[in-house]
């Protein structure tokens, strides 16, 4: 029970308030009973008329006999006046007379006894020890007053406890929710005192903590996204360098084997002219791969920004088609083009030239002889759309999502014949990402179509 009271604010306030109320009521009752003045119902003026006769009668008695007469007479007077007055007899020069106020006494009379010449002062005074009627009534009402005091104390303590602790309980509940990181509730305490100020401050704190937590969660999500992206980039980077080392190792091993065979004149390698030419071809392929690796390294460098400027995309396409004309003729391919004039884009002309060279080169390299290549450029709303379609060949659907991976080849044997490094489309995708353009490769009814949206 004691532990429960100690842990409950309501119980503490109730107990303290009830005890204080009971103590205050009891103290008030005590003060009333102790200090309430007596209300006199009889008047001393009636005794003033009898004082001369009493003094005259007593003067005829010796002092000892007179005391008995005084006792009898004073008893009669006190009985007639309900004990409100007492008889006082002092020597004439006694200091005790100074404590009496003549307003609260009867007439003062000088008295001498028959056997003594010493003078005395006699009078009746109000009985200050007479109990107050109010105190007497209160004492008679002790049982009822006890019940009233207890009831008033409990009721007052109850309402005071509710008034004081109800808002504190609400504040405590909201604080508990805040501790559990739940900032959805508000403390509805409509008061202007310190408790109301505390509730308002708690609401403000809840709002600010909720905002700060939301910002922190958003920052954490962004940080986690950045970490995941960095991990993915690191994974791709490691995969890229692993693949690059493998791709570089193959031509180097070929050149090394051919040179050793020619040096020691082993078997067919005695025909040096033939294998020197083949070594040169492998060296050319190796040089091309190194150049593309350098391009990739430059494009993937942190903080790299391409130098953009406005130019006519249609003119650039016409220029690159002319540059590849001999290659198309060697492959016995027909190029059909529909290029809308005056379509300008903003970008790095040299990098976008590399994109066109790769796409046109792939279209020519992987199209069977006698087929056609369609090149189209047009404008749709705010987009410039370029499509390059080569016919006579398709790509397996399972390979299309991986075409932009570094060193990925759909058909290893075919890529060896065409001399591809597996970096062309990876470079194309990297350059277009720098320009905010989108590229898509898909199979069409005639072959493979590449779409670029600037």
Helices and strands in order:
Elements: H1 2-7, H2 9-35, H3 45-48, H4 51-58, H5 63-80, E1 85-91, E2 109-112, E3 119-126, H6 133-140, H7 142-179, H8 194-263, H9 272-299, E4 309-312, H10 313-323, H11 325-330, E5 334-339, E6 344-347, H12 349-365, E7 372-380, E8 383-391, H13 412-418, H14 424-434, E9 438-443, E10 447-453
Parallel strand pairs: 5-7
Antiparallel strand pairs: 1-3, 2-3, 4-6, 7-8, 8-10, 9-10
Helix pairs in contact: 2-6, 2-7, 7-8, 8-9, 9-14, 10-12, 12-14
Q: What's the number of extended β-strand segments?
A: 10
Largest sheet: 5 strands, mixed
Helix content, binned percent:
55-70%
Structural class: alpha+beta
- Radius of gyration based on Cα positions: 60 Å
Structural shape:
rod-shaped
Biggest sheet: strands side by side, in what order?
Answer: 5-7-8-10-9
Instruction: Tell me the distance between the termini.
Output: 79 Å
Which range does the strand content fall in?
Answer: 5-15%
Order of helices and strands: HHHHHEEEHHHHEHHEEHEEHHEE
How confident overall, as mean pLDDT?
Answer: 80
Which stretches of 5+ consecutive residues score pLDDT under 50? 412-419
How many helices does DSSP assign?
14
């Amino acid at each position: 029970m004691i532990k429960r009271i100690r842990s409950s604010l309501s119980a503490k306030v109730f107990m303290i308030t009830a005890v204080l109320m009971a103590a205050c009521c009891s103290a008030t009752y005590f003060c009333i009973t102790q200090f309430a003045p007596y209300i006199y119902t009889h008047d001393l003026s009636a005794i003033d008329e009898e004082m001369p006769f009493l003094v005259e009668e007593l003067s005829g008695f010796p002092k000892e006999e007179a005391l008995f007469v005084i006792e009898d007479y004073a008893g009669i007077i006190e009985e007639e006046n309900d004990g409100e007055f007492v008889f006082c007899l002092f020597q004439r020069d006694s200091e005790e007379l100074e404590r009496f106020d003549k307003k609260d006494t009867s007439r003062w009379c000088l008295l001498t006894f028959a056997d003594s010449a010493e003078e005395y002062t006699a009078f009746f005074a109000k009985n200050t020890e007479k109990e107050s009627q109010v105190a007497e009534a209160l004492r008679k009402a002790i049982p009822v007053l006890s019940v009233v005091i207890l009831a008033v104390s409990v009721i007052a303590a109850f309402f005071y406890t509710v008034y004081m602790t109800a808002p504190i309980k609400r504040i405590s509940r909201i604080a508990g929710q805040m501790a559990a990181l739940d900032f959805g509730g508000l403390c509805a305490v409509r008061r202007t005192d310190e408790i109301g100020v505390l509730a308002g401050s708690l609401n403000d704190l809840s709002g600010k903590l909720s905002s700060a937590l939301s910002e922190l969660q958003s920052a954490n999500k962004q940080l986690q996204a950045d970490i995941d992206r960095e991990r993915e980039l690191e994974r791709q980077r490691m995969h890229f360098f692993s693949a690059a080392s493998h791709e570089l190792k193959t031509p180097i091993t070929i050149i090394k084997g051919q040179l050793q065979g020619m040096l020691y004149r082993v078997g067919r390698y005695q025909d040096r002219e033939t294998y020197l030419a083949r070594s040169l071809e492998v060296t050319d392929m190796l040089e091309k791969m190194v150049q593309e690796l350098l391009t990739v390294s430059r494009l993937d460098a942190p903080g790299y920004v391409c130098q953009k400027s406005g130019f006519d995309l249609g003119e650039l396409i016409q220029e690159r088609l002319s540059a590849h004309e001999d290659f198309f003729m060697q492959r016995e391919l027909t190029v059909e083009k529909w290029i809308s004039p005056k379509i300008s884009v903003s970008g790095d002309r040299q990098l976008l030239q590399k994109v066109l060279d790769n796409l046109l080169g792939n279209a020519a390299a992987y199209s069977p002889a006698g087929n056609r290549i369609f090149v189209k450029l047009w404008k749709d709303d705010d987009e410039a759309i370029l499509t390059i379609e080569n016919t006579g060949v398709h790509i397996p659907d399972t390979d299309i999502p991986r075409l932009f991976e570094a060193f990925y080849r759909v058909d290893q044997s075919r890529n060896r014949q065409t001399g591809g490094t597996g970096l062309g489309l990876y470079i194309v995708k990297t350059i277009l990402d720098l320009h905010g353009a989108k590229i898509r490769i898909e199979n069409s009814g005639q072959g493979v179509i590449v779409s670029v949206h600037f």
